[in-house]
Amino acid sequence: MARPARLAPPAWLTEGLRPQPAPIPWAAVARASIALSAPLAVGMATDRPVYGALVSMGALSGVIGDTADAYRMRVFNIAVPQLFGALGVTLGSLVFGHGWTAVAVVTLVALVSGMISSIGAIASVSGLLLLLNTVVGAGLPMPDPWWLPALLLGLGGVVVLVLTLLGWPLRRGAPEKGSVAAAYRAVADLLEAAGSEEYEERRREVTQALNQSYDLVLARRAREHGRAPVLIRLLAQLNALIPLVEAAPAANLRGRLIGPLPPEIPAAVRDLADAVEEGRTGAPDLALPEPERPAERAVDRALRYAATVVHKAEPNPYNVDDRLGRPAALRVRVRRTARSVLFSEQSWRYGLRLALCIGLAQSLVSLIDVPRSYWVALTVTFVMKPDFGSVFSRAVLRALGTAFGLVTAAVVLAEVPRGWWDVPVMMVLAALIPAFSAKGYAFQTAAITPVILLLSDLINRQGFDLILPRLYDSLIGCGISLVAGYLLWPESWHTRIGDRLADAIADTARYVALAFAPERPDGPGKKSGDQAARVRSRRKLYRDLSAVRAEFQRALTEPPPTGTRAAAWWPLLVAVERIVDATTAARVRVDHGAPPPDPAEAAAIERELRELSAGVRESEVLFAVRTDLTGPDDSVLQPLRQEVRAARAIADPGPK
Fold it and tell me: Among its keywords, does the record have Cell membrane (predicted)?
């Protein structure tokens, strides 16, 4: 009997086609609908439909770039990329119709775009719009004079920015407050899950919540001149959550042996979350059970400290942000960023890959007369976007999403009369972009494709006749990306997940050494900076592990051998996360009354982790290792030794 499972599509493809369980961002849906349809209506009313289409294109770029939560960050996320987009369309329009000069310019822009995309989120969107608008300007005839297209596209970004900032006077600081409150609620869920199988998933949610909160608050702090009371309060409340997060691994260990924490504890943390969001102050009212064990004392002390800080009307404005360190001066960060881009192997590698693919696309359409040929380069740009996922799966999903989007566009172009009917159609299609973008890359492509087709048809009318050429262009662009952007590069087949995991294990070894290093007194009633250094090290380690997990998830969407290798190594990544948790739990127990371990025990664990890191770095497959980790059964490090032995056992595949 034939096995039906063999006829099923591969997992890396079905994973990309499965919609993500993300809520629909209704505010973003409304903004996109208005921002893209209103310019068309104005263009129709003034008998300038081309101008209206260009403004809507600029609004589309703003909608794509509006990915932040805090208002200050949204200003940068929308405004800065628009400047790069304006520069791109200007360069493209200046070389329109100039043959190989246009090919050279667009290829050079692709190199720059790829290199700056490695800086960060805003730079990534800026590089994307720089290249996209250069390709559009070089592929479509733009209205004169030369500065007008940039002005119209920028005006579209202004429309999105104005709609975005309408709520700023009423909700200033609300995203930051909501993010900090969400971090408290995530910690409440974590403590509630202590000792259960859900703990690991809740801990990852806490890491994501803390990452997002610190990114929002610290980004705002980096731009504040002086010390704003609201900012000081939020940062103090966020820092007060860290001891509670540190106590969670000890609570989880206690939960495995005894049972879950009393329900009053997570309920108290949720009440603190409400207090953060509502801005409540006053004396905290905590009805907590009496702690008996070190883990319980750690949770109790951390919770009472957090309650004091949350309800305090005026936190100490000094040392409030020393826990994570202060951001460097702007000129220092600019200098570091420039040096990183110019001398980073990763930025040059991606820039050259993108330039090669764009150069091939532009050369191909220069040699072959392809209708609407700029779409080939546009497809390459979206497929090669570095932070969208696997190049291979993106190429396949892009082709599928484009095909679905072309079906929608074909219906619109065939059945809807051109003119004022374009406005309500655009209202509907634009609303689908943020709604579908939250569901996955293929869904985002399916939503954006008909919008761009409709706008480009308004600029240079071709109607239904552009549907098949657009499909051919998309397939050509996906083919170029697969061959020149994936198959020809060794790292596509020899993924760096092993190196990333080895780095994480080495950092874990350093964290173990730091966690159990002897503390040096720094004056009466004080300790040295060891505790703050441990906090920074642990936060950085969890953030790095989150990035490594994302890299693994991206590798899982690759076809064999990369995907199968990532799947085989996934349990080791989980084991490393458990080692970090066990280290934190042991440190917390020592801080709250447990006997400190023998330094030789910690040194042995550190040595085992460094050996494991070296072995992972030198191999592409799981390998056998020996470990003789022994120690007293009543030692505080016994759970940590068990986790390290489990990690070494995972690294041994056993008999085949």
Answer: yes
